[in-house]
Amino acid sequence: MDDGKRMDVVGFLGPLRRYARALTRDESQAEDLVQDTLVRAYERRGSFRLGGNLRVWLLSILHNTFIDERRRRNAESLRIEQLAEIATAELPADQESRVRFQQIRQAFLYLPDEQRSALHLVAVEGLSYQEAAAALGIPTGTLMSRLGRARAALRAFEAGQGPLQIATGQRPNLRVVGGSHE
Asked: What is residue 176's predicted lDDT score, i.e. its pLDDT?
């Protein structure tokens, strides 16, 4: 970057790679996403405010790059989900804990993109709610709502409802309390 605005992004490669893997569900696409993110960050280095949070700025660029790519390749997302299911089904289960981890990982991958992004930034990357909301470009309340839904979906999985309900986006049957039943 500019000599006057030296920004060391090497220390953020780990979080960028982890977040990219959580979004793309594919190692090579995650590496491509990180590279695209760094190129965009370099091209837009003048928009970074001195004293700003470089980590949040980079994660925000990564998130926006992913969303842009997702919009361009909407048809490809179905193929990626199918490959993720095949890959996890073919892994040998050496022990019960490994099987359980794979089940939880699969349930996490079945979460909608918005919920998975929010949960990854807060639970895995350790960002505060405000930092994660800034990285995603959403209000803090929206982030908290997405976290709540993601956690509830994972709790439902733990209660035995399974990842199929999460994958198909089915909502639990709700009953109307009060008011008209028309």
From this structure: 53
